[in-house]
Design brief:
GO terms for molecular function: single-stranded DNA binding. The protein has 243 residues and is of the alpha+beta class. It has 2 domains: 12-141, OB fold (Dihydrolipoamide Acetyltransferase, E2P); 177-243, Arc Repressor Mutant, subunit A (Orthogonal Bundle). 35% of the residues lie in helices and 25% in strands. The protein has helices spanning 12-17, 33-38, 98-106, 140-159, 165-172, 187-200, 205-212, 216-228, and strands spanning 28-30, 40-41, 48-49, 57-69, 73-79, 84-90, 112-122, 125-135, 233-234, 240-241. Helix 7 packs across helix 8 (216-228). Mean pLDDT is 77; it is low at 1-21 and 163-186.
Length: 243
């Protein structure tokens, strides 16, 4: 993959030089898992097209739910709160790269990763053929990725003259949590919102902040209250669980 400004994503120079009415395609397109499932099959019906961007490479930031290692591949089930998808690293490609093997060994369940790869269709089911995977060590990256994916989706929709209000909200608000913002805004109400979210999906402060559109400081204060009451627990890598 060619080296791109900002890791292959949209740069200011790219925005300034491209046609105002049509955005240039990106080498690596930041997306959510929901966008992948909603993508249109390409002409060969072996991959997908998202927002008319014929990129061969996509990047997702997600939680590793499961990890399975065989002689042929290392398979992950990934969840970014908008959906779930399987991703696989084919080990033959990296059998002579010990550093990459060590990296794969270090990635465990209930940790966040950024993956880059192509989307393959088997029947109508998409999966990610992973060419690059990195642990997420700064949880601000989760929030940034969701924001970037929503921003780019909005820009591509505008370039086609489509309404952008609903899609922008759709990709920032994960599907299982859309009703939470309408609930009681008090500390007690927020406690229950956060508790239910963590029961359903162990999460970090940054991820919860992005879902509820509340400041990380506010989320941290309420999580500390829940933690002090023994309702949730802080695990490795800043992940809160209810177990």
């Amino acid at each position: 993959m060619a080296d791109q400004d900002g890791g292959g994503y949209l740069s200011n120079d790219q925005m300034d030089t491209q046609d105002k009415n049509k955005l240039a395609p990106l080498t690596i397109l930041p997306v959510t898992i929901k966008q992948i499932h909603s993508g249109e099959p390409n002409v060969e019906k072996t991959g997908i097209t998202i927002d008319d961007n014929h990129s061969k490479w996509y990047t997702v930031v997600a939680l590793v739910l499961t990890k399975e290692v065989t002689q042929l591949h290392c398979k992950f089930t990934l969840d970014d709160t908008t959906g779930q998808i399987e991703g696989s690293v084919y080990l033959d490609k990296f059998k002579d790269v010990p550093a990459y093997q060590n990296l794969l060994d270090s990635i465990t369940e209930q940790t966040y990763v950024r993956v880059v790869g192509g989307v393959r269709l088997f029947g109508e089911k998409p999966s990610i053929s992973i060419t690059r995977i990195l642990p997420v060590t700064d949880f601000n990256e989760i929030t940034f990725h969701l924001t970037e994916a929503a921003y780019l989706h909005t820009q591509y929709a505008r370039s086609k003259g489509q309404s952008t209000d609903a899609p922008a909200k759709q990709y920032i608000q994960p599907n299982n949590y859309n009703n939470y913002n309408a609930q009681d805004g008090s500390d007690e109400g927020l406690q229950e919102q956060l508790y239910q979210m963590i029961v359903e999906q162990p999460s970090s402060i940054a991820a919860l902040s992005a879902r509820l559109r509340r400041s990380e400081k506010e989320i941290a204060v309420v999580l500390e209250q829940l933690n002090s009451n023994g309702r949730i627990y802080l695990r490795d890598r800043g992940i809160y669980t209810a177990e």
